[in-house]
Amino acid sequence: MALKVQLFVTCLIDGMFPEVGVATTRVLERAGCEVDYDVRQTCCGQPAFNVGLFEDAARLARKFVDEYSSTTGPIVVPSGSCADMIIHHMADLLDDAEGVVKGVTSRVVELTSFLVDQLGNPALGAVCAARAVYHPSCHGLRNLGLSYQPKALLDQVEGLELVEIEGASDCCGFGGLFSIEFGEVSAAILDAKLDRIEAAGPAVIVGGDVSCLLHIEGGLKKRALPIEVSHISQILAGQ
């Protein structure tokens, strides 16, 4: 019997990168899961939370909990940033005398962690003949411990040459609203990252957060570099 999972796609994926949501669904199904998607889902509240709008963030958090409290199975999130928000901060916004909030947030797991740590890195049959650099986003790496999981998945992709760069774990400079409020600093951080990426000569930059990939893609276009960006689910799904 297939394991039923709930898919929370995040705002950016839903609004700007729906193909990542499709790829994530395909990967989960290929891994033997039955995927449910609640069309009512919106935002986890992270943008409001990060700028101190805690009442707004709490309303979104309550909506998330209310929608998922009646479901079963792991809640899979293809974003380390949003998964971190839900796992580590959502309970701080809401009263949880009956344990409903914890009951929901304890089921939340980031996509690569789910595939590797819970499903044992299943064979997905992915093929991608390309030279690639993996970018570990800050929230996933530092707050969720997503270090070996993405690489374990990418190592099984036939034809993929994964190259390491100096300072691979350094921030790309996005940081959500940080890139807007501190644009010059953000651009300088990104330039340092892009210098090392350009020197490695990859065809694609792979990441687990579309927010960081969006930021990196902007820098690549500014430099007119013929390097693509791809969410890890797209590589694993063969897109």
Describe the structure.
The protein is of the alpha/beta class. It folds into 2 domains: 3-117, no CATH class; 124-237, Rossmann fold (3-Layer(aba) Sandwich). It is 51% helix and 15% strand. It has 14 helices and 8 strands. It has helices at residues 11-16, 18-30, 46-50, 54-68, 80-88, 90-93, 100-105, 111-118, 138-143, 148-155, 178-181, 183-200, 210-222, 232-237, and strands spanning 3-7, 33-36, 75-77, 108-110, 127-135, 158-162, 204-207, 228-231. The strands form 2 sheets. The chain has a 4-stranded parallel β-sheet, with helices on both faces. A 4-stranded parallel β-sheet has the order 6-5-7-8, sandwiched between helices. Helix 12 packs across helix 13 (210-222). The longest helix is centred in the last third of the chain and has 18 residues, at 183-200.
Helicity, as a percent range: 40-55%
Order of helices and strands: EHHEHHEHHHEHEHHEHHEHEH
How many distinct helices?
Answer: 14
Beta fraction:
15-25%
Number of separate structural domains: 2
Q: How many beta-strand elements?
A: 8
Unreliable spans:
none
Anisotropy-based shape: globular
Instruction: Summarize the biggest pleated sheet.
Output: 4 strands, parallel
What's the SSE blueprint?
Elements (H helix, E strand, L loop, with lengths): L2 E5 L3 H6 L1 H13 L2 E4 L9 H5 L3 H15 L6 E3 L2 H9 L1 H4 L6 H6 L2 E3 H8 L8 E9 L2 H6 L4 H8 L2 E5 L15 H4 L1 H18 L3 E4 L2 H13 L5 E4 H6 L2
Parallel strand pairs: 1-2, 1-3, 3-4, 5-6, 5-7, 7-8
